Amino acid sequence: MIKKKILLIEDDDWMAQLQGEILAEAGFSVRVARHAHEAIALIDAKMPDIIIADVLLAGATIFTLLNELQSHHDTGEVPVILCTSIAEQFTPEQLKTYGVRRVIDKATMESDALTVAVKAVLGG
Amino acid sequence: MNQEGTHGEHVPAIVAAAHELKAPLALVRQQLLRLDSSDVSSAQQRLIQQAVMTTERGLRLTSNLTRAARIEEGALFTLEPINPEQMCRDIATELAPLFEAHGRTLQVHQRKHPLLLVANRDLLRRILLGFSDNALHYSEPGSPVHMQITALKQAGVVRVGVRDYGPALSSDLWKTLQKKMKLAPQPVHARPESSGLGLMLAQQFAEAMNGEIGVVRHKDGATFYVDLQASTQLSFLS
Predict the structure, then answer these.
(1) Which of B63, B70, B122 sits opposite A107 (nearest CB)?
(2) Which of the two ends of chain A, N or C, has the fewest CB atoms closer than 10 A to its terminal CB?
(3) pTM (2 decimals)?
């Protein structure tokens, strides 16, 4: 069975490692990018089935990248889950245009929150 | 330099600090939750759960600080009719593990007729979580903390209070505190570990909903409350 491909954009190494392990254990193929430029390189190399991204990254925020992805037909189709400590600042309406399907609050999320969200988005 | 100027210069630093603290606290919580799901002894399990709950208290505070900053920036918050008893029950359920870990209970006084008030759901929740955290800290071990909702009909106000059984407050404390709390956190007399920061934030949240907070002194503790406008739907329910 082909594993679904997740691109995890997270600039905190330990958080990325933790989330990557949990998602890999759930049966997903996970690649990690620490910033927007690295994410673009990884997307160019292999299109992910879904993107999980932090908002506040070193350099540009995630919205610069998402805006770029939305301007292309193929990358614009990739669903996005935001996993951020500033989730309270966003409404679903604000994020719809960026392809964001779920917002997860890092401060309150349970261990399996990402896995559940990915399955819901990919299955829906 | 006037006091307002001093206050204004401190807010960005506090908010920046809150933002900076949020990420590492969230990471530690996630790491602890990961540990929690692996094989550990019951003693280790207890320590992990306590550490998770401690990080969650820290995260609530940092989140409140950033939310307060948004109010100061002029952000608007939607007000809606809310059943405060239901919200209190939700909070009691959410905080039950924390209270149980401290050997205390959080109970909600049930009303025969439900009351409705006008509030922003998120801000009211933050105020009541803060009062509950405060009550947990200052109540005696083994004692309950009560959440109660009362109607002040003449004023058209619904009061949501959190009653603790801890050290009493001096009678003139609140007047002094109210004058000072808008400028900077002040320690609460007889509760020396308190900086007053939680009350300052609660006051800001209440004001954003056209309400106010207050305290009732008891011989064996205190009731911290928030007064908010009663919903006009109240008349249909009581």
Answers:
(1) B63
(2) N
(3) 0.74
